[in-house]
Specification:
The chain is of the alpha+beta class and 358 residues long. The chain is built from 8 helices and 17 strands. The longest helix has 14 residues. The structure holds pyridoxal-5'-phosphate. Belongs to the class-IV pyridoxal-phosphate-dependent aminotransferase family.
Length: 358
């Protein structure tokens, strides 16, 4: 997701009147990736038994939290990311929302937090989207990014889980990542700093996985790269993932991606791409991928909710740059067209991946 908003933007939006119009008064043709606050957020709190009370919608804005909250002191927090898409007929749909609910549950178990049930999660997402529906961009202009958070909001002094957790959802409209679907990434393989270690939290969407990669990503960007491809922390020989997306390599008819072994995030786009690739007749391998295989690949691409399916034009490792096929006839382009077609409703969803928000 894009950069943080300025506090002045926030104030402007707080004053914004909430009308009944179909679309917010916004320049949809110039929608970017920075935070655009919308009208409402959703909040729900757990009680001492770990059950959540009935949640509610409240105007988007700041909220109070204990200075001793476990999320602030010990990083007891998770986030999710998914999108609501406007179909050509004006209706709104979500993509694989239950998968996000399940991933949050898995993360909550790892961080000793109660989590909303799948039903509570899906209902909360739907309510939040409906309350902010004038911010779901017109068909073809982008999507409404939905950010569910789960945090240890209760105060603790000694290291330990919070006595109370807060589930919160906010949203922001975002543009189409690359309007022509093909602006490729140039990646730098990072062999100094690790993202996730075996036994750590790399396999869940813990907030603590992200700030530690800022340094490597900023340094790579300063050198002109788009992002960093991290290696496994144990041996430094195998590729794992990019700072906020999964990675695939293509060699002939075989598409490979690192297996899920606790150090990479089980991406929902990754899972969908594997299924689509099998449907197209490719052989798909989930395995440990040594750097040498990446260097020799025909194609490399990244997958994630924010980036969609994003081709990689080059990867640099120890000052050597490998280049890859991108563009109209690439495998990633074919997969991208199908995935975005299903997400936006212009390709029939035969897999039950989408759900209308009504
Ligand atoms: C570290 C990391 N890997 C992969 C992904 C892709 O996951 P998904 O396809 O579910 O968005 C994300 C984004 O959520 C991420 O933060």
């Amino acid at each position: 997701m894009g950069s943080a908003q300025s506090s002045s933007t926030h104030k402007v939006n707080e004053k914004r009147s909430i009308g009944k119009e179909k679309y917010a008064n916004f320049d949809w043709d110039n929608l970017g990736f920075s935070l655009t606050p919308t009208d409402y957020m959703y909040i729900m709190k757990s009680n001492k038994d770990g059950n959540f009370s009935k949640g509610s919608l409240t105007p988007y804005g700041t909220f109070e939290i204990s200075p001793a909250a476990a999320v602030l002191n010990y990083g007891q927090g998770l986030f999710e990311g998914l999108k609501a898409y406007r179909k050509e007929d004006g209706r709104i749909q979500l993509f694989r929302v239950e998968e996000n609910a399940n991933r949050m549950k898995m993360g909550a178990e790892r961080l000793l937090m109660p989590s909303p049930s799948v039903e509570e999660f899906v209902n909360a997402v739907k309510q939040t989207v409906l309350a902010n529906k004038r911010w779901v961009p017109p068909y073809g202009k982008g999507s409404l990014y939905i950010r569910p958070l789960l945090m240890g909001s209760g105060g603790v002094l000694g290291i330990g889980p919070a006595p109370e957790c807060t589930f919160l959802i906010f949203t922001s409209p975002i543009g189409i990542w690359y309007k022509d679907g093909s602006k490729p990434k140039s990646l730098l393989i990072e062999d100094g700093l690790s993202r996730a270690a075996p036994g750590g939290t790399g396999g869940v969407k813990s907030i603590t996985n992200y700030a530690p990669v800022f340094e490597a990503v900023n340094e790579a960007k300063a050198k002109g790269f788009t992002d960093v491809l991290f290696l496994d922390a144990a041996t430094g020989k195998y590729i794992e993932e990019v700072s906020s997306c999964n990675v695939f390599i293509v060699k002939g008819n075989i598409i490979s991606t690192p297996g899920i072994q606790g150090t990479i995030l089980p991406g929902i786009t990754r899972k969908s791409v594997i299924e689509l690739a099998l449907d197209f007749g490719y052989q798909v391998e989930e395995r440990s991928i040594p750097v040498e295989d990446v260097i020799e690949a025909d194609e490399v691409f990244c997958t994630g909710t924010a980036v969609g399916i994003s081709p990689v034009s080059s990867i640099t490792y120890k000052n050597k740059r490998a280049k890859y096929k991108t563009g109209a006839k690439s495998v990633s382009q074919k997969l991208c067209e199908t995935l975005t077609g299903i997400q936006s409703g212009c390709i029939k969803d035969t897999k039950g991946w989408t759900v209308l928000v009504e």
